[in-house]
């Protein structure tokens, strides 16, 4: 009988692009360590910003300082999504969350990855870019009047505040992604739906279709944007003649099963 018990603990995210070793260590010590009651046999950590060896080492050292374990594996959130959605089967795996990303996975490792480039140069279809377009349309008076009224009812912002949050504050992508739920609440308005569909088309064109395997392997998605706008995403994927695979909001349950070999 399997007596293993799965305990779920939710915290905010970690990204070595924005956080150094000491900051990550302090975060783990304050937010995760108090919930760990037993010695840890192995740690498998997946996160955005952990694509390069340098970033992975920063996180690995921070973890080992706080939670000693004989096995500490640090990988990108993209590999985590691959293992969760495809396990040991090949496929194209995409993340549509605060940021966006994609790759071709051969069932064991990531073979090709079109660089997402972040929310300024890329991240098409992500919550940050959806929020960026939404806020820019509002500040440039390009929103339909009806949508503008709803937006002003939900948010009180001005140009100087937005510029300060985007160009001078930490985590501007998180700030911008906070506006994406507005699109979900107003999805029945053509402006909102068209904005989402336009971004998904850009994501498919500039990322997914760049993989030679895109026409013959399932396209899988993880992330809140993919989950909440599943209808619009399906429409765009199918209009491009692609095979739609799985769409999940949180891959953590499937990833847990992967490591437990369930």
Explained architecture:
It is a single chain. The protein has 262 residues and is an alpha/beta fold. It folds into 2 domains: 1-69, no CATH class; 87-250, Nucleotidyltransferase, domain 5, CATH 3.30.420.40. The chain is built from 13 helices and 7 strands. It has helices at residues 21-31, 53-66, 77-86, 118-121, 127-139, 145-154, 159-167, 172-177, 180-185, 190-206, 224-228, 230-239, 252-260, and strands spanning 42-47, 71-76, 91-96, 100-105, 110-112, 219-222, 244-248. A hairpin with a 3-residue loop joins strand 3 and strand 4 (100-105). Helix 10 packs across helix 12. The chain starts with 20 loop residues before the first helix and ends with a helix. The model has no long low-confidence stretch (mean pLDDT 87).
Question: How far from one another are the termini?
Answer: 13 Å
Structural class: alpha/beta
Mean pLDDT across residues? 87
Largest sheet: spatial strand order? 5-4-3-6-7
Describe the global form: globular
Instruction: List unreliable stretches of 5+ residues.
Output: none
> What is the number of domains?
2
- Computed over alpha carbons, the radius of gyration is 20 Å
CATH fold name of the largest domain: Nucleotidyltransferase, domain 5
Sheet of most strands: 5 strands, mixed
Q: Percent range for helical residues?
A: 40-55%
The fraction of residues in strands falls at 5-15%
**Would you count the extended β strands for me?**
7
């Amino acid at each position: 009988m399997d007596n293993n018990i799965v305990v779920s603990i939710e915290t905010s995210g970690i990204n070595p692009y924005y956080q150094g070793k000491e900051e990550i260590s302090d975060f783990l010590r304050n937010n995760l360590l108090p919930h760990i009651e037993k010695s840890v046999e192995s740690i498998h950590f997946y996160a955005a910003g952990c694509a390069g060896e340098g970033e992975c080492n920063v996180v690995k050292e921070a973890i080992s300082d706080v939670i000693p374990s004989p096995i500490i594996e640090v990988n990108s959130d993209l590999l985590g999504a691959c293992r969760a959605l495809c396990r040991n089967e090949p496929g194209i795996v995409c993340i549509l969350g605060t940021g966006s990303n994609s790759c071709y996975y051969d069932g064991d490792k990531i073979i090709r990855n079109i660089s997402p480039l972040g929310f300024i140069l890329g991240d098409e279809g992500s919550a940050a870019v959806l929020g960026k377009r939404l806020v820019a349309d509002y500040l440039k008076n390009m929103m339909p009047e009806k949508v503008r009224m709803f937006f002003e009812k939900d948010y009180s912002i001005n140009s100087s505040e937005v510029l300060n949050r985007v160009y001078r504050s930490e985590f501007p992508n998180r700030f911008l992604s906070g506006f994406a739920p507005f699109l979900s609440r107003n999805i029945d308005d053509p402006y909102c739906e068209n904005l989402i569909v336009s971004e998904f088309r850009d994501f498919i064109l500039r990322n997914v279709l760049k993989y030679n395997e895109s026409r013959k392997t399932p396209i899988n998605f993880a992330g809140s944007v993919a989950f909440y706008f599943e209808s619009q995403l399906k429409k765009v994927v199918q209009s491009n003649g692609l095979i739609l695979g799985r769409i999940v909001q949180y891959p953590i349950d499937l990833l847990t099963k992967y490591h437990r070999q369930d």
